[in-house]
Design brief:
Main location: membrane
Largest sheet: 11 strands, mixed
CATH class of the largest domain: Alpha Beta
Bound molecules: beta-D-glucopyranose
Radius of gyration: 27 Å
CATH architecture of the largest domain: Alpha-Beta Complex
Low-confidence stretches: 38-73
Helix content: 25-40%
Keywords: Glycoprotein, Glycosyltransferase, Membrane, Signal-anchor, Transferase, Transmembrane, Transmembrane helix
Order of helices and strands: HHEHEHEEEEHEHEEEEEHHEEHEEH
Pfam families: Glyco_transf_7C, Glyco_transf_7N
Membrane topology: Single-pass type II membrane protein
EC number: 2.4.1.-
Length: 370
């Protein structure tokens, strides 16, 4: 007996109807899923240029708003209540960005074009957008000595871009006197410490004086979940990094992140190594590192001769393995000589005595029986 004979026409019809219904539901479910996925994808893509980050150590996601709004909101609430005109939060990502522009600098840069640059600045180089409430308050720290032309070029480069980013920012130029060789790590530590005495920032960004941002979409913001190295390549190296774990140039820390690793080592005078040692600290404390997508993290370097290289930099890297707690931002020995609130930045002149710094490190080592 064939199956046709055992089933009536009615059964076959019901059977086929059931299949058709099941197929219909299936198609409906699949198309809903496709629509949902494309919606999510579209959302991701629309913000990809700001949010998509390469992760070196571990992949993670983040949302800028989540990180800083509350803190800044509290800080700015007072200003808002103080009768300043009603403002809403600045849009994120900001509108009217210019995108990537290769920066053509001129070493014979004339005096700072203050008229062009200083609108919206408050005393001491703090800029606050006038038309909206900024989502973050940041300190830009520039280690400095004898590089007047470079500083002017950098200010011309960075200020208009940061203004377009609609951030509340203050620029700190930390200048070291000539009594000892330049100490790039320690000057940054001092910048962090001095800026923190003036205000509580959401984000501390160290920017070398010769390192010029090309793309204003490279947001000068921090991420609580990872330290952000904002540089993916520089022109003098074909827009590549010399090595994957390079963290020099421009790097953004929250206060907690910087304190967790005790900042930079104070033991490296002359040129080089402090950023490699910093990376070691980050790795040891399990801090993640993010970089922007390649296109956005491009920088121009002002070419110049470096100071003499730090002869001990490899030795310090090798040996300074457990000393982070006694050598860093919490162990500073220096003199603040001057603080000057200029139109575009706060200038802080400091004296570092190499002998004293080395001696205080040795004393701490001995005290800790290392
Ligand atoms: C130095 C780093 C520097 C890097 C730049 C390394 O040899 O130790 O401080 O950032 O070179 O290429």
């Amino acid at each position: 007996m064939s199956w046709r004979n055992s089933l009536g026409n009615e059964d076959i019809r019901r059977f086929l109807t059931n299949i058709a219904n099941a197929l219909g539901v299936y198609v409906l479910v699949v198309s809903c899923m496709v629509m949902f996925a494309s919606f999510i994808l579209q959302m991701d893509l629309s913000e990809a240029k700001y949010f998509e980050y390469q992760s070196i150590i571990e992949i993670g996601d983040f949302k800028f708003h989540e990180l800083t709004h509350e803190d800044v909101k509290n800080m700015l609430e007072e200003e808002r209540n103080n009768g300043t005109k009603e403002r809403t939060w600045c849009q994120f990502p900001p509108k009217n960005m210019h995108g990537r522009q290769i920066y053509k600098y001129n070493l014979n840069v004339p005096d700072l074009d203050l008229k062009k640059l200083n609108s919206g600045f408050q005393h001491g180089g703090r800029y606050v957008p006038e038309d909206c409430l900024p989502i973050a308050r940041i300190a830009i720290i520039i280690p400095y000595r004898d590089r007047e032309k470079h500083l002017k070029i950098l200010l011309h480069n960075i200020i208009p871009k940061l203004k377009r980013q609609k951030l509340d920012f203050t620029i700190y130029v930390i200048e070291q006197t000539h009594s000892s060789p330049f100490n790039r790590g320690m000057v940054r530590n001092i910048g962090f410490s001095e800026a923190s005495k003036i205000a509580d920032y959401d984000c501390y960004i160290f920017n070398d004086v010769d390192t010029l941002m090309e793309d204003d979409r490279n947001m000068y913001l921090c991420n609580k979940r990872a330290v952000r190295h904002l540089l993916t390549g520089y022109d003098t190296h074909g827009y590549q990094l010399d090595y994957l774990f390079l963290v020099g140039g421009v790097i953004a820390f929250t206060k907690e992140q910087f304190l967790k690793i005790n900042g930079y080592t104070n033991q490296l005078f002359f040129w080089g190594g402090e950023d490699d040692e910093l990376y070691k600290r980050m790795r040891c404390s399990g801090i993640k590192l993010y970089r922007p997508v390649d296109e956005i993290g491009k920088y121009t370097i002002i070419s110049h001769h470096h100071d003499a290289k730090e002869p001990d930099r490899h030795k310090v890297l090798r040996e300074n393995t457990d000393n982070d707690v006694i050598d860093g931002v919490k162990n500073l020995v220096y003199k603040r000589l001057e603080i000057e609130y200029k139109e575009l930045y706060t200038r802080i002149l400091v004296d570092i005595d190499e002998k004293l710094v080395r001696q205080s490190f040795l004393d701490a080592l001995e005290k800790n029986n290392r």
